[in-house]
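(Protein data)
===
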Amino acid sequence: MKSSTLGKMRLFHFMRILWCASSLALASCLSPGGKPGATSPGTGPDLFQASVKPLFEQRCVWCHSGELAHGGLNLQDRAATRDPSRGFLVPGKPSESGIYRALTLDAAHPKVMPGDGWGITLQQSAALRDWIAAGAPWPDDRSGRITRKPLRIDRDDFL
């Protein structure tokens, strides 16, 4: 491997560690919602609407939807996502849910998701874990439908 490539990889990992450390420091200064004065979205259906659905729509559904869903995971098919034989989503058991495991792998792992190299925030990881632990309540009606949304990055997420 060329030394310039190795140097870029080291810089990337250093920046990622720095970002994580600053996120933890900032999170300890803020209220549960991540912004001063905000309240926690709670658990269950509220957590799905406030945190999990936006995560799926912005970061996951672009590759995991329709007929060509990568890895066989189609987030637009609620029933298939919950199929116990597939193990994508195991309500009440985050550590056994493939979705949670893939999203929380080490950044250097070849199967980490999303595959764009940016990963998800610590708040998103915690919300997903809490939602799955609460039984992964996912509304059957229109409010539970996962659609493709453009990626929105707040500059404050990476400062």
